[in-house]
Every structure is written in C-alpha cells, then in structure tokens.
Specification:
single chain; mainly alpha; A middle domain of Talin 1; 81% helix; 347 residues; two-stranded antiparallel ribbon
C-alpha cells in the first residue's frame, strides 16, 4: 500500500514544476508543494540505487548508496549555498543528524518495541557523530564572536572537512556493506531487480528532477518562513531536514513495525553518522566551487548534537530497545525542535 502511494505521489514533481513556472501560485504554495514532492523522489532515488547495487557488487553499490542516498539533502544544500543561505545549509545538516538520532530512532523503538540491538554498530555510529562534533568545534568556536563567514573560518573548515572524509573512508567498507544490507527487504515484490540500465536511467532522471524541485524549495524558504512567522533556521533545521530524509525515515519505521527493530535502529544510526562524517564535509568542499561555506555552526546546533549523542548513548547503553526509550527520544526531539524555534536566526 505504501509503495503504491509513493509511486502515485511521484506525479507531484511535474505538477510542482508546472505550477511554479506557469501558474505563479506564490512562494508559500511553492514551498509546500516542493517539500511534498521531495518525499517520493527521495524514495525513488533510494530504490534506484538499491537495484543498481544488485548489479554492481557491494563496493560500487555501496558507493552509489552513500552518494545518491544523500542526493536530496546534498542538492538542497548546494542550491542554498548558491543563494548564500548559509544558515539554511548548516541548519538542515545539523537538523538531519539530530532528526535521525532522536525522531527516527525514537519512532523506530516505539513501533518496534523490546528487542536486542547490534551494540557494536550502534556505538560505531554514535562514535562517528561524536568525533564529527569535536572536529566541528574547530571552525565553530572562533565564529561565535565575529563574522561567521569570514575567510579564517572557511580556511579552518577545509582541513576539518578533509579529516572527516578520511575518517569516513577508513570505515567505508564495513559501513557501506552494512548500509546495503539495511535496505534489503523481505518483500518478494521488492526483491525483483531492475536491469542496470533501467536503474541508472531512473537514478539520473530522479536526481535531475530533485534538483529542479530543490531549487524551488530553496527559493521559497525565505517567504514561507516569513509568512509562517518562523525563522529560516527553524524551517531548515526541522522542516527541510525531515523532508530531505523522509523516505529513509519512513523505511526505518516500517521495518521496525514489521518486527526487525535491530535493522530499523541501524538505519537511523547509520544515517546520522553518514550525514555527520560524509555529507557535511562533502557540502563544505563542493561549496568551494560555488561560494565558500564556513562550518560555523552555532552553539545551539552543537549543543543539540551533543545532547542527542549523549541521550541516545545512555538509552542504548545496554543494547536493548523499548517503547519507553522510543518515547523518551521523541520527547527529546520535541524539546530540541522547540529550542530551535526559540533560538531563531543568528543575530
């Protein structure tokens, strides 16, 4: 049923593009339609990469998963960079990590109930996020008392980004093999693979359409935030972050509901680690080709990351999931989202 809904909702993308260029509905309608259209597109990109992985083997297949699995978030971030919306970029990235650790993991535990987790995988992922947090302090702290976009902060961001990518590559073989397994379904309908040409064609088309939708989304954020009386930071850190990960979020919850809580938890945790040590530095380095991005994260963002890692570590320390722990994580995300709302844009 969910797959039928996702296939049907793919029509939102051409409708959104058509209405944007023909009907001129306004930025608020554009933002809402673009956000909704990105959900099935993110799912389709994930489907195409998984089918391609059946033909390319675990190494190349894992690389495709790592690269294109984050395509919606990456594209949104780069369009925001091109429009100099640096707070939107940073907010959406930190919001993605926090959302995976608290919201997605929380709902996975809630729907999955009591079960044993893979303790080694859990703490590798949490350790990677913690390491990223410590390295991100290097460019962030000097930015708190002065212009966060100045050249010094950009210069500090480059070696930090390279270091994070080196860490990512050091664990990539283990993590990417695991990442592929996390998305393997027991549904016979899903196990029927597409041919490699079909998979790559779908992937290419979906990525191009995602870029068009992302451009509409980023271009309408400012007006949407103003009319909704929300800060651009909150819209990016909460709404855009959830939308960019929506398909994978839904996948984790469905897997948990089917009874595979170990798998669901690993989807959420591996996704958070991948954003922290792969997507953030990738965006920072690619931004050098467009408009240099300083990894000048605000104290509220880094505190939210630290709190999320600490709470998740404490709740999962024994390697077991319960519905109560899921509720605690969801409640914590509500608190973080409220903090983001109160924090507003950088002064």
């Amino acid at each position: 049923m969910a797959r039928r809904v996702l296939w049907g909702s793919l029509s939102l993308a051409p409708v959104t593009i058509l209405l944007h260029y023909v009907a001129d509905l306004g930025d608020t309608a554009d933002f809402v339609l673009a956000a909704l259209a990105l959900v099935p597109l993110a799912w389709l990109i994930g489907e195409a990469t998984e089918h391609a992985a059946h033909h390319t083997g675990p190494g190349i297949g894992g690389f495709l998963n790592a690269t294109f699995g984050n395509a919606p978030e990456l594209i949104i971030a780069l369009f925001a960079v091109s429009e100099a919306k640096f707070e939107v970029v940073r907010g959406s990235l930190t919001g993605s990590v926090v959302g995976n650790l608290l919201l997605v993991l929380g709902f996975s535990l809630l729907f999955g109930g009591r079960g044993q987790l893979d303790r080694q995988s859990t703490f590798v992922s949490l350790g990677l996020v913690a390491l990223a947090l410590m390295l991100l302090l290097i460019p962030a702290v000097p930015s708190w008392g002065d212009d966060p976009e100045r050249d010094l902060i950009v210069a500090l961001s480059i070696p930090v980004s390279i270091a994070l990518l080196v860490v990512y590559l050091a664990v990539t073989w283990w993590s990417l093999r695991r990442h592929r397994a996390l998305h393997t379904s027991d549904d016979p309908e899903e196990m029927v693979g597409w041919s490699l040409p079909v998979s790559l064609s779908v992937l290419a088309v979906a990525t191009i359409v995602t870029a068009l939708i992302a451009e509409i989304l980023v271009g309408s954020i400012e007006t949407f935030a103003h009319k909704a009386h929300l800060s651009e930071f909150f819209v990016a850190a909460v709404i855009v972050a959830i939308v960019g990960n929506a398909a994978e979020h839904g996948g984790a919850v469905v897997v948990a509901w089917r009874g595979n809580i170990k798998l669901a938890a690993e989807i959420a945790l591996a996704s958070s680690a991948q954003v922290a040590v792969f997507l953030i530095p990738a965006v920072a380095l690619l931004a050098l080709l467009i408009d240099p991005l300083a990894l000048a994260f605000r104290p509220v963002e880094l505190c939210a990351l630290a709190f999320s890692v600490a709470l998740t570590t404490a709740l999962l320390w024994q390697g077991w999931s319960t519905r109560g722990r899921g509720i605690a994580l969801i409640a914590a995300y509500g608190g973080v989202a409220t903090t983001f709302l109160v924090a507003g844009d950088r002064g």
